[in-house]
Each structure stands twice: as structure tokens, then as C-alpha cells.
Amino acid sequence: MFVLAKSASMAERKEQAGMVTKDEALASARLLADWHVVNLNRDFEGCGSAGSFPFTVSPDKKSITAAADWNVAFGIMGMLSAGKVFGEEKYLETAHQMAYFLGTLQVFSPFLPNDYGSFREVTPQTTWSFLRDALSAAWGCLCYYEATDNEEFLERARLWGEWFLKHGMDETGWPIWGTFPGKRKEGWLPEMHLDMHGCFHGGSLNFFYHLARLTGDKKWVGDFYEHIADYFVEFIQQPDGYFRTIEKKTRQVPPNDPQSGLHRGNDDLGTLGLLGAWKTFGKQSYLDSIEKFLRAAFANQTAEGFFEASCAAIPVLLNIADEAQGLIGFEPPGEAVERAIRALLSRQFPGTAEPIFAGGLDELGDGGLCCRSMGYALLWLLKRFGGDKRYLSI
Asked: What does pTM read for this prediction?
């Protein structure tokens, strides 16, 4: 839990303008949760993306696409958390419907033996998959299993892990960019930068930490896991404290980031992964890396409270600061935290907006909506203000 700077008296705390109350934060979380309920595709008999929801919505409502596997995974976590905090069945039922859809994305075709256990990206027909997204899908399966005791989803997560050990890493031991399950010869396919090591793969550590925890099988935090953590700290993290994608051969940051700076203040939960690696191996370098990143991010916070154009970075940063509190030599000032929370809430569409926007987050401040920031924000608000510490935790 964050506190204000120790030099601030109780009176000074009360006088601080703009402090976010528990009721205000939970009202925001409820709006976020309700957006998922309202905008879930429930046409299970007539649509291949039933159980999913829009990933992005442009200001003119034209750029609406089905959520990817990882969006659905975080949606499941958010709905399970909302169900616990608010005690309403509609959230749990929505989580179950999302989990049903997520299961349809996993490949079990006898005609694709090398893809057995992998996930498709968006629908059962999608012929490609970003590996980090698929890992989050498997993480979502773990969370659903832990909340419901549905053994099917533990097995789904384990099977994805087995696929990863066989096909998910390059010759250096770093996770690959992505795959093409059942790839067609024609049609659009995304570029997989197999010549680069994506900075987002630091977040992969989270899934394997929890798979080991829930199965009791230490192979999931074995040599490959330690190598990812060490490489993340030694080569992916840069002198300025941020994590950046590097070229595989040179280990240098390329002139142009293939993801256009998507992962900066939003480290894709890589520092959270390092915290799990620290609990596994006890290496001080992991904690030092977390501290270095947090110091860099808060040093670049704007006066309005943002860390970058996207508000998705706010809950990610506040979450790792919460998780690492007392373990590292840096704690964000209370005033900086309050500004960040206020900035996050300032991006929320009111509940009176039309249903496709109501309660969602204007991630970039351009009048559009993206469930990336919404998933992270919902989980952190329910964790920080609702007391549900099951998700985005170590």
C-alpha cells in the first residue's frame, strides 16, 4: 500500500487536493467491469468470436476488432476479481464465457502436431500468434483454474508450457517473437521479428512462476527460467533504466523500435516477473533492476501524472511499486502516486456515454478506447482499493 512521504503530517495529507477515495476508485473499477459485461459478444451459436469483446474502438466507432487471446486472459482475471469484490454473479458468468472462448483458441489439431498446445491470436481461424500474447492466455488459464478448481484449465496451461519448452525459444534461450499455426500461403500475416529479442518477454517469467507454484513442479522455474531473468537484466535493460528490444546478433537497440515504443513505462509486467525470479533464486540483481526501472519511470512522470502517452503504464507501474515495497530502496512519493491515479481516472469515459464507450479508458487521449489499459487498470484498482490481491501478484 502506498503512503505519502513521511515528512507529511496527517493535516497535510487531508489538505492535499485531488486525493482519490476508495469509493471513487471502486466506482471507476465497477464501470470498467461493466464495460466488459455489456460489450461481451454472447452470440455463441452464430459467431466464432463469441466470448470475446472489442480490443480497440476508434473515436468514430469504426475500428472495432475482437480481443486477442491475452486481452481475454486479463478480462477473465478482471471479471473474477470484480465478482469477488462486488459480489455480483454477472461478473463471474462473464468470466466463464470468456474462458470458454479462450479454450477455442488453443490448438489440438492432429494435422498440426508441432503446434499442439499453442494458442491462436484472435479467433479459432487466426493463423498466427505472438508468443508473449499466447503465454498470457496460458496465464489466464492458470488464474481461471485457481479460482474455479476446473482442472481442464490447469492442463491447458501445462500443455502450453510443454509446447513452449519444445518450440518457444531460439538457440540462445530467449523466447521467439511469434508463430504461425496452420499458416496459409496468402492473406495478411504480421511480421515476426525473429532477428530481435523482444523486451516484452520479461513478463514471461510470471506465467512460469505461477505454473510452478500451482503444480509443484520445479522444472517450470529451472535453468531456462533463470536464463530469461538474467538476460532481461543484463541485456534488455538499458543504462537509463528502461527495457528495450535488442537485435539478437549485436545485442544493441535497433534504430527503430518495431513496436514504436509500446513497452516503456508499461514494461509488460517484466519487473513483476523479476520479483518472482528473486523469490525463486534470491539474486539481488533482480531487485536492483526493479528499483532502477522505477526510479527512471517516476523521474519522467509528467506534471499531470502520466508516464507516457498511453495510460496503460500507470497501473503497471503502480502495481510493481506496491509489490516491491519494502524490498527495494525506492518508494514513489505519495503525491506522485496520487497524480498517477488521478491521471488514470481522467481517461475514463463516463457511465452515461454510449455503451461501446461507457466506463472504458481513452488510452491515448485521442477519443478512442483500448482494452489494454482497461484490463490492467481494473485489476490494479480492485487490488489496491478492493483488497483482491490474487492477480498481478507474486
From this structure: 0.94
